Amino acid sequence: MATNLKRRWQLGKVRPGDGSQLPDYRLWHLFSRSVFFLELVDKGGRPLAYAVDVRPWADPKSRREHEAGGKSPAALYRDGVQVARSNLPATFPVEGGVVEVAASMAGLKRLRFVDDGGGELPLRPHPRSHEGRRARLARTRPRLSAGIGMASLVTLLVALTLMLVQLVATLSEVPPVAENLGVLTSPVTLPVWGNVVLGLLAAFAGTERATRLRHHWLLDSAVS
Question: Which residues contact 175 (CB under 8 A, 6 or more apart)?
Fold first, then answer.
């Protein structure tokens, strides 16, 4: 029920596209833009080529401004022509289902095709994008890719654990808590620079996971 309501709300945000052509992907788009592709077939057997252009850090506009035009955080293209656009999170109607798009501060956390029967299919990233380069590494150097993925996971686990331990220790010093439960001494207390370094490492790890569209509500919360 909640999922259906959420989807209907997101579908209601979708506005008609402006008919523009899908812009070429340039090197300087690496840190600001993601493009994914999806090939489907209509009821008559005609192939349809969809593309989703996502710019997570584009300024979200009000509904009136959004309808008037301008850059949108997410846009849907069919056969190279913009047919729909929306703020994030977004759900675009396509042949036989919908395309769901969501982002966090670290990058994309969800971009998938969900058919009318509930089946899911990942979209193919543009080969020049961060996501495309990461997917190519996974294909050509699977062991290295797996090692990087494991390092990202461990970094986020350590960062989350240390953050929670220090937070609990700090909260235990609040007078009402200290009087009833006592003060907890954190086994690990990082200096300011240590927390900064840990935060940067966690941000890099979260970004790496975002290039693989990996997202966990708790694990990635530290960088989302």
Answer: none
Report phi then psi at 138, rounded to 5: -65, -35
Q: Which two three-digit tokens encode residue 76?
A: 């849907």
Is 9 exposed, middle or buried, given 0-12, 13-18 or 19+ CB atoms closer than 10 A?
A: exposed
This model's pTM is above 0.90: no
Contact 220, 104 (CB under 8 A): yes
Q: Please write the tens of the pLDDT for every residue from 103-123.
A: 888 888 889 999 988 899 999
pLDDT of residue 63: 42
